[in-house]
Amino acid sequence: MAEWKLKEEQEIAERKRQEEIELRKLEYKERKRKDEMEFELQKIRIGAEGRTLNSNSVANQNVNSTQIKPKLEIHHLMQKFNSDENDISLYLIMFERLAKQAEIL
Description:
Strand content: under 5%
Radius of gyration: 41 Å
Oligomer: single chain
Shape: rod-shaped
């Protein structure tokens, strides 16, 4: 009888220990899942920040590209005016077109 009671107590203690082990495993899995979710959330946040920074830098580049133009000297693009051979009105029309293309006017 005493052996039976001792054996029963050992079985109860073993079950409790197994339940504690299972509980710890579940807690570990839950903590691991939570950490993975936080990690994924951080990746998404960093990706979103990166896209925001990239779009801002692209916008800044677009602004800078519209503000900073290469230096063009229009006299290199135009022929010299020769009053004997050329008409001044046609020469001025050509000048205006080149100035618009060079975005001077």
